Amino acid sequence: MPHVALATIVKHTDQLLRTTGVGDYDGAVNGLQVESRGTVTRIAATVDASLATVKLALAAKADLLLVHHGLFWSPTPPWTGRKYKLIRALIENNLAVYSSHLPLDAHPKLGNNAKLCAALGLKKLRPFFTSHGQTIGFQTATNISLTELAARLARATGAQPRVISGGPKICRRIGVVTGGAGGDLKVAAAEGVDTFITGEGPHWTYALAEELGLNVLYGGHYATETFGVKALAAHLSKKFRVPWTFLDHPTGL
């Protein structure tokens, strides 16, 4: 069975994603979040770290779990109940957890935004949307109908997007930021895009999009962020010759 040192994979991934050089929310805690006894034979990738996805990883016989949303977003509660079960499952089954949030969003080749743009057929990408000190998304000049763009997004994610038709019927400048950037429509509009693709946003963004003259496509927070962990796992699998699998645990949100 092929195997590689966990420390070797972590070092490579930290360098690849510039883990310590990319700003992020405090709770992201990018990098190795849970250590193991040190050997990796199978990688699993999923969007969210939770007891449910840990159980899926164990069923897949993985010993390294790559996630986009890690374990530490909220203040650490007592290690009781489901939290105890999660931690016990990780430790007893020798499952390491590596998490990458904005570093993975922003990566120019493996990132959620780059991969979603590729899936949409968007080319000649330029940096877009500043968050925590760096740009994390991409924009492009193009000429495509809003209807066709929505159809492409549905095919790319496997989920029907919610569309706010606040802008022109023909999209000529599109910005892409996966995940939960819907609350920042003014930031997107200020950069000159007429169409903004992200994962989700609050109710009040409907009226705001109309006021800004901005098309908004909400493709789903989960659905728009499966791309990065898949690409990262495939990259590590190829480099270190260990198998990988994607654990689909959709939220519908």
Architecture overview:
- α3 (81-92) links the parallel β5 and β6 (96-99).
- This protein folds into 2 domains: 4-100 and 226-244, 3-Layer(aba) Sandwich (Udp-n-acetylmuramoylalanyl-d-glutamate--2,6- Diaminopimelate Ligase, Chain: A, domain 1), CATH 3.40.1390; 106-221, Udp-n-acetylmuramoylalanyl-d-glutamate--2,6- Diaminopimelate Ligase, Chain: A, domain 1 (3-Layer(aba) Sandwich), CATH 3.40.1390.
- It contains 9 helices and 13 strands.
- By secondary structure, the protein is of the alpha/beta class.
- Helices cover 34% and strands 25% of the residues.
- The strands form 3 sheets. It has a 6-stranded mixed beta sheet with strand order 7-8-10-11-12-9, with helices on both faces. The protein has a 5-stranded mixed beta sheet with strand order 2-6-5-4-13, sandwiched between helices.
- α5 (112-120) crosses α9 (227-240).
What's this entry about, in short?
The protein is of the alpha/beta class and 253 residues long. Helix content is 34%, strand content 25%.
Can you lay out the helices and strands and say which pair or pack?
Layout: E1 4-5, H1 6-17, E2 31-34, E3 39-40, E4 43-48, H2 51-59, E5 64-69, H3 81-92, E6 96-99, H4 102-106, H5 112-120, E7 126-131, E8 134-145, H6 146-157, E9 162-165, E10 170-176, H7 185-190, E11 195-198, H8 205-212, E12 215-218, H9 227-240, E13 244-246
Parallel strand pairs: 4-5, 4-13, 5-6, 10-11, 11-12
Antiparallel strand pairs: 1-3, 2-6, 7-8, 8-10, 9-12
Helix pairs in contact: 5-9
